[in-house]
Amino acid sequence: MDVIRDADVELRPLLERTVGIIGYGNQGRAQALNLRDSGVRVLIGSIADAGAERARADGFEVVGIGVACERADAIALLIPDEVQRGVYEREIASRLRPGQVLDFAHGYNIHFGLIRPPARLDVILVAPRMIGVNVRRSFERGAGVPAYVAVAQDATGNARALALAWAKAIGATRAGVLETTFAQETELDLFTEQGVWPIIMRDLLLSYEVLVEAGFAPELVALELYGSGEAAEIFRQMARVGVIEQMRLHSQTSQYGTLSRGPRMLPDACKELLRAALREIRSGAFAAEWRSEQESGYPRFEALRQAARAHGINRAEQLGRELLARTGLSDTD
Ligand code: NDP
User: Fold this and answer.
1) Can you tell me which atom of ligand 1 is nearest the CA of 189?
2) Which of 235, 258, 238 is nearest to 246 (CA)?
């Protein structure tokens, strides 16, 4: 797969425009600061909240969302995905003009047709593969985090060049940028959330229940399964040296146990469940379910969250957290 680097991209298309960042939260703050440090004119559009105060303290001009959309040539919708549609319909749609650029950090609302911008606008995606605080931290260290870039609408003929310039201005091309589509970015993101994390979380909860039933102390179990931070370190090493290669950091007994029992614990037949999860995402069935859940005030989501918070593991893990805080290791070590 081609990787787009700093030297491949011109900043110029973005330097000629005023960028309006809508929302000064995780991504909004990081991207606004990086864009400004790269020489881009940045304006913040926000409701009157703590984010707006912070943006002013950071030296930005802050205006209402509608005003920012009128004044900016390129508009980044960096508010939570769940509220984007409502804000777009109430405050943005009527103010858009041909030739403007609408930028997203996640493809969900465009891909599922919840936001349908007029055809005479460019619609781009610049999606950093990292939480906002690290988008900024890495940039400040002279580096950057990888990002996906995609184009949904190219009304001006410049959409791709603009998306890449944006990625460069936030530091992403210093690490490397991959081109994709709104569909793939959205589907991959949802698949990881629905096909990967639930299996890991359920396995931790079921393992906890089995071990506590078998007489192990709950605190010991939580510490062993993930509380010591060792599990997080394994994931970090998977990214650094490889899913399989990181096994070298563990004993031979551990390696043999993991490799020999893997297929028994999660047989190949489970792929059918993963395919079903992908189908549900691709068909839009999940998006429809989630939209109806939002419209009815989150009854199922609240019940699920309450049940999860009532699980015994929540109490058992407190000791692990206390011990971890004493290791002298920070989140970024
Ligand atoms: P945040 O949760 O940080 O929210 C951003 C800002 O939007 C906050 O200042 C928030 O204000 C404001 N906001 C909340 N509700 C409303 C509303 N109804 N009207 C106007 N403003 C509102 O968002 P993120 O930065 O996490 O996410 C923004 C986008 O970036 C999303 O599309 C997300 O998928 C994507 N993304 C996020 C990543 C991350 O780092 N979290 C990583 C990659 C992509 P307040 O604080 O007052 O609620």
Assistant:
1) 34
2) 238
Question: Which tokens in the block code for residue 284?
Answer: 């839009």
Contacts of 219 (CB under 8 A, 6+ apart): 316, 317, 318, 319, 320
Pocket perturbation via mutation, ligand 1, pick of 22, 24, 27 by most ligand atoms within 8 A of CB: 27
Give DSSP secondary structure letters for 119-141. Answer: TTSEEEEEEESS-HHHHHHHHHT
45 beta partners: 22, 63
Active site residue 111: no
Give the full edge-to-edge strand order of the sheet including 147-153: 62-63, 41-45, 18-22, 74-77, 101-104, 122-128, 147-153, 177-179
31: exposed, middle or buried (C-beta count within 10 Å: 0-12, 13-18, 19+)?
buried
Per-position pLDDT tens, the chain of length 333: 999 999 999 999 999 899 999 999 999 999 999 999 999 999 999 999 999 999 999 999 999 999 999 999 999 999 999 999 999 999 999 999 999 999 999 999 999 999 999 999 999 999 999 999 999 999 999 999 999 999 999 999 999 999 999 999 999 999 999 999 999 999 999 999 999 999 999 999 999 999 999 999 999 999 999 998 899 999 999 999 999 999 999 999 999 999 999 999 999 999 999 999 999 999 999 999 999 999 999 999 999 999 999 999 999 998 888 887 888 776 655
**Distance between CA atoms of 187 and 122, rounded to whole angstroms?**
22
Nearest to 292 by CA among 117, 115, 114, 116: 114
Cα(68)–Cα(19) distance, rounded to whole angstroms? 9
The residues lining ligand 1, judged by C-beta closer than 6 Å to any ligand atom, are: 23-28, 47, 49-51, 78-81, 83, 87, 105-106, 127-128, 131-132
Kindly give the number of the ligand 1 atom that is closest to the alpha carbon of 24.
9
**CA dihedral sign, ordered 140, 142, 143, 147:** positive
Q: For CA atoms 198, 204, 207, 213, give the dihedral sign.
A: negative
**pTM (2 d.p.):** 0.93
